[in-house]
């Protein structure tokens, strides 16, 4: 009996969460240490964006300067909102740790996600990057913010003032992220050259050939889009598994392109069929129905 009991005890030790091996004071020290590293990363990103704004004022003018300042200002505002969110989250994490409920250091991911946003903004200002990268980074920051709030609500006291403050900061981050997306799209429309299609001098055969080539290209892009959406869905599933997030994805994730529709939601209800009534024969016609047989008369 002793041998199987020892095996069960060993399996239980292996299944025990690793965070339980850390004492409460050690966990608090880990939170402080990671908080300092995260704050340093955000502060560096804010300084770099300010440097880029000063550089843009010297190297660009006109529409380009206006677009660059608008994008960089929106990125700077988002960074400052993330910094405030991290500080608020740290206070909440300390409260959770002091209550003996462990901790959730989701703000750590937010800090490091600010680096790709800064790099993407730098590339866009230097015309070496894609505007879509800034949009994707903003969406990822909004998604991480939603995960942070959801995980904090699970462990924190629902009446905690730090939790209410965290929710307010998360709304500010989402608004600033949406502002980055809007300014980026607006700047993209202003900067990128729109090639005007000139069909003058083209014969009917050439027009038809180009039409067929474009149709083939559209089908190829649709197929590529379908495959990439499937890959994105699988990557998100794996991300949730590795991040240890239980439950279904957030509402924002389900509204993104490539999110699988819920089963039965897109099925239309069957249309009601009109009952089939057999036509009456001539001998069945009755005057009560208001139907009379017509007679042909010759005059």
From TrEMBL:
All copies of domain I/LWEQ, residue ranges: 19-243
One Pfam family here: I_LWEQ
Localization of this protein: Cytoplasm
Chief site of localization: cytoplasm
GO molecular function: actin filament binding; clathrin adaptor activity; clathrin light chain binding; phosphatidylinositol-3,4-bisphosphate binding; phosphatidylinositol-3,5-bisphosphate binding
Any one biological process term the GO annotation gives: actin filament organization
Entry keywords, A to Z: Cytoplasm
Highest taxon in the source lineage: Eukaryota
InterPro entries: I/LWEQ_dom_sf, ILWEQ_dom, Sla2_fam
Biased composition (Basic and acidic residues): 280-290
One cellular-component annotation, GO: clathrin-coated vesicle
Region (Disordered): 247-291
PANTHER family in UniProt: HUNTINGTIN INTERACTING PROTEIN 1, HUNTINGTIN-INTERACTING PROTEIN 1-RELATED PROTEIN
UniProt name for this protein: I/LWEQ domain-containing protein
Native organism: Spermophilus dauricus
């Amino acid at each position: 009996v002793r041998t199987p009991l020892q095996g069960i005890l060993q399996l239980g030790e292996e299944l025990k969460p690793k965070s339980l091996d850390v004492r409460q004071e050690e966990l608090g020290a880990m939170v402080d240490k990671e908080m300092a590293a995260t704050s340093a990363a955000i502060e560096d990103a804010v300084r770099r964006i300010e440097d880029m704004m000063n550089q843009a004022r010297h190297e660009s003018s006109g529409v380009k300067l206006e677009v660059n300042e608008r994008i960089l200002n929106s990125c700077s505002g988002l960074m400052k909102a993330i910094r405030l969110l991290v500080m608020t989250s740290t206070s909440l994490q300390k409260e959770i740790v002091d209550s003996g409920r462990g901790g959730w250091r989701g703000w750590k991911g937010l800090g490091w996600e600010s680096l790709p946003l800064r790099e993407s903004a730098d590339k866009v200002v230097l015309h070496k990057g894609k505007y879509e990268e800034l949009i994707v980074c903003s969406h990822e920051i909004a998604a991480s913010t939603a995960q942070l709030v959801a995980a904090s609500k699970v462990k924190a006291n629902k009446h905690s003032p730090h939790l209410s403050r965290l929710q307010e900061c998360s709304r500010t981050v989402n608004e600033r992220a949406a502002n980055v997306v809007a300014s980026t799209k607006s700047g993209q429309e202003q900067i990128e050259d729109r090639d005007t299609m000139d069909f003058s001098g083209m014969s009917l055969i050439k027009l038809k050939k180009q039409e067929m080539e474009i149709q083939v290209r559209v089908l190829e892009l649709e197929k590529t889009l379908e495959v990439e959406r499937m890959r994105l869905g699988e990557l998100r599933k794996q991300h949730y598994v590795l991040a240890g997030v239980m439950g279904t994805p957030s509402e924002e994730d389900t509204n993104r392109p490539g999110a699988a529709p819920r089963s039965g939601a897109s099925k239309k209800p069957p249309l009601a069929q009109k009952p089939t009534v057999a036509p009456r024969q001539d001998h069945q016609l009755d005057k009560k129905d208001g139907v009379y047989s017509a007679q042909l008369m010759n005059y």
